[in-house]
Amino acid sequence: MKNKKLEIVWQAASLLHTNGQTTQRVILDTQRLAHAYGLDIEILPQWDDIICRSREHNTDSSDWQSDIMSFRPTGVDMNKVARTNQVIDRICANPNRFSLANIEYAKQELADVAALKPSSNTRFTLMAGFGAAALGVVFGVSNILVLTLIFLTAFIGAGVRRALVTVSDNLFVQPFSAALIAGLIGGYAQHIFKDDGLQFIMIAPCMILVPGAHILNASLDLTRGRLSIGINRLMYCVLILLAICAGLLLGLTLVSGTLASGMATAGTPLWLDIISAGVAVMAFGAFFSLPWVMLIAPVLVGMLCHGSRWLVIENGGGIALGTLVACMIAGTTMTLLSRMLKLPFAALAFASVVSMMPGIFIFKFADSLINIYLAGNEATLTMLTDMVTYGTAALLIVLVMTFGLILPKMLIEGNSSSPQK
Prior knowledge:
Blueprint: H1 2-18, H2 23-36, E1 39-45, E2 49-56, E3 65-70, H3 78-93, H4 100-114, H5 121-138, H6 144-165, H7 173-190, H8 200-207, H9 212-223, H10 227-254, H11 270-287, H12 296-314, H13 318-341, H14 345-352, H15 359-375, H16 381-415
Antiparallel strand pairs: 1-2, 2-3
Helix pairs in contact: 1-2, 1-4, 2-3, 3-4, 5-6, 5-8, 5-11, 6-7, 6-8, 7-8, 7-10, 9-10, 9-14, 11-12, 11-14, 12-13, 13-14, 13-16, 15-16
């Protein structure tokens, strides 16, 4: 019987760990389920596995059983996390949970959760296009032709990503291929059209590839002192960003395109910024397989965050302060919302502030590095200054976002008296 109960605990832990739940919640929810089955359990989530030891409650310490479960936390599926937590809640509240029939039923429930499909291809590709176009609007793009090209570029990239799932299990081929397509289409468009916002044909579709949820989970692990998994998560994010930059710059090189074109400078009205933010959140809801019915609250929070950022910037507060204020709001509301809806904090928080990620600075920093290398001894001080400026801006905004999102979560969880914190 113990082995059957442990199998359920392992199933739940794997579903939470591999689908974007924070390490802290994986540990707490797994322990909560194990205690409901009369088990003492200690787990240590790592990048490639979860180290676990367990025993029947109130037995001698010599009875500990050690196991290693092999999983990688590379996915983000909010539907699976929510459904897994629903099963855990039902088990914990069921007085007949120890019966063999209930144990078998719980095992089948978790197997059904594991078999759930992600967002449909139609929803995924369409929302990729709409989400990228919405980010273009937030960045100041107003040209309908440019927005249409942004939509088509992200739409095609998303379709290719879904097609590659069936032929390759490589973790980086999807972002590389989608970024390559963005570079090819955006670079080619520069030879045909003239507009200050043309670079966002490349930037916006690549922005939706940035692994923001994993960056937040890595930051949370590092903040809590879980250096092993935190560093591994961070390296995973860095490699994805390198794949995106490599694909984008290769695509641009093949068609003689550039990221040095002018910025879109048109200011976005508050009402349009808020609506566009809501569309971007809906897009990431599709990427993270969040059911439509559960999108309302995250969309409203995302719109609130972007509205507050817009107001701060318009009143002279600057991008860094506006981003900090918005992320503090997002961190506070999403901490409470993730607990209420049983959803991964990192996915919810990132979706609400995705347009604030300094993707354009990251990509321009990578482009500047390549340009300096190609120039060799002919590299100018201006080229070096641009590289430092872009790199510093990217680092500063990432740090501000991370601080703004994580600090409220740490404070709320640290002061919470709930046993399920």
